From TrEMBL:
<keyword id="KW-0227">DNA damage</keyword>
<dbReference type="Pfam" id="PF11967">
    <property type="entry name" value="RecO_N"/>
</dbReference>
<dbReference type="Pfam" id="PF02565">
    <property type="entry name" value="RecO_C"/>
</dbReference>
<dbReference type="InterPro" id="IPR022572">
    <property type="entry name" value="DNA_rep/recomb_RecO_N"/>
</dbReference>
<protein>
    <recommendedName>
        <fullName>DNA repair protein RecO</fullName>
    </recommendedName>
</protein>
<feature type="region of interest" description="Disordered">
    <location>
        <begin position="192"/>
        <end position="215"/>
    </location>
</feature>
<dbReference type="InterPro" id="IPR003717">
    <property type="entry name" value="RecO"/>
</dbReference>
<comment type="similarity">
    <text>Belongs to the RecO family.</text>
</comment>
<dbReference type="InterPro" id="IPR012340">
    <property type="entry name" value="NA-bd_OB-fold"/>
</dbReference>
<dbReference type="InterPro" id="IPR042242">
    <property type="entry name" value="RecO_C"/>
</dbReference>
<keyword id="KW-0233">DNA recombination</keyword>
<dbReference type="InterPro" id="IPR037278">
    <property type="entry name" value="ARFGAP/RecO"/>
</dbReference>
<feature type="compositionally biased region" description="Basic and acidic residues">
    <location>
        <begin position="201"/>
        <end position="215"/>
    </location>
</feature>
<feature type="domain" description="DNA replication/recombination mediator RecO N-terminal">
    <location>
        <begin position="1"/>
        <end position="79"/>
    </location>
</feature>
<dbReference type="GO" id="GO:0006281">
    <property type="term" value="P:DNA repair"/>
</dbReference>
<comment type="function">
    <text>Involved in DNA repair and RecF pathway recombination.</text>
</comment>
<keyword id="KW-0234">DNA repair</keyword>
């Protein structure tokens, strides 16, 4: 068995290693996730440096190692310079990369995940609707992993949800642990319903929990949904791109509402993977500032 191999790959993470090397996390269509050393890439005159930068796509030639592979050569295929010129776009790319790294497997072909990441980076390069594309990318990657939240039906009763439920006194809630939206009236049948919470600056629930408080601590949190937030989640689940990205679209799809939905989806992601999204801190700062500046 040969110790050398070749594969195309997207660099999704890069960290300093030793005095001049970098440790890369690379997504490839044929071999899934690859962790490899890029020797000497932190030196000013390194030939590998630009070809192994973040979100650069190259044809890589590697040699297998005991724990880490080593890059011998990289031939540039595609780069996305527009990402490095926009902090918002770069942060969105890093957010997606974190999602991909949580679901990618080593030594497993993952061509669809690879193609989708290429597509999303290409769209991110040229789009002006950065926040909308962030949400579409999140839902795309969750769907590929089989983790897309249930939005059209109540997770507890499977009853179809409509605008009437959102505007009713009982309301509807997003439950990360339940896997999507639950109707407020369905919670009345449970002895110890989940307790309300807030997601970052997300909407505060006014649901009053009952039951043994010791049990409530073990139950999933709830986020009360407004009608705009539910409509955005529904559009994401249906792949309604035009509705979200149109500059003259429905005012319900405002930057403020889009940012709230990102926070709701983030709670779902972090509950499932039991790890925080590191780039979300910068997402909060960048997009909350731009949203608050709007009339």
């Amino acid at each position: 068995m040969s110790l050398t191999y070749s594969t195309p790959g997207i660099v999704l993470k890069s960290t300093a290693m030793g005095e001049a090397d970098r440790l890369l996390s690379i997504l490839s269509p044929e071999r899934g996730l690859i962790r490899a050393v890029a020797p000497g890439t932190r030196k000013p005159k390194s030939k590998l440096g630009g070809r192994t930068s973040l979100f650069v796509v190259s044809q890589l030639f590697l040699v297998r190692g005991r724990s880490l592979d080593k890059i011998l050569q990289a031939d540039l295929q595609t780069s996305y310079p527009g990402l490095s010129r926009s902090l918002a776009k770069l942060t969105v790319g890093q957010y997606w990369a974190e999602l991909v790294l949580r679901q990618a497997l080593s030594e497993q072909p993952q061509p669809e995940l690879y193609r989708q990441m290429l597509y999303l980076l290409g769209e991110l390069e040229t789009t002006e609707a950065v926040l909308s594309l962030l949400l579409l990318g999140i839902m795309t990657l969750l769907t590929l992993a089989g983790l897309n939240p249930q939005v059209a039906h109540c997770c507890l009763t499977q009853q179809p949800i409509d605008a009437h439920h959102l505007n009713s006194a009982a309301g509807a809630f997003f439950s990360p642990a339940a896997g999507g939206v639950v109707l407020g009236k369905a919670l009345e049948h449970f002895h110890s319903p989940p307790r309300p919470t807030r997601v970052s600056e997300g909407p505060k629930s006014d649901y009053t929990s009952k039951g043994d408080p010791r049990l409530r601590k073990q139950q999933p949190d709830l986020i009360r949904l407004s009608l705009p937030h539910w409509l955005i989640l529904k559009s994401l689940g249906e792949g309604d791109i035009q509705q979200l990205t149109s500059p003259h679209g429905d005012p319900l799809f405002s930057p403020q509402n889009l940012l709230k939905v990102e926070q709701i989806l983030r709670s779902f992601i972090q509950h499932y993977f039991d790890r925080p999204i590191q780039s979300a801190v910068l997402i909060d700062h960048l997009f909350s500032v731009s949203a608050s500046s709007l009339p």
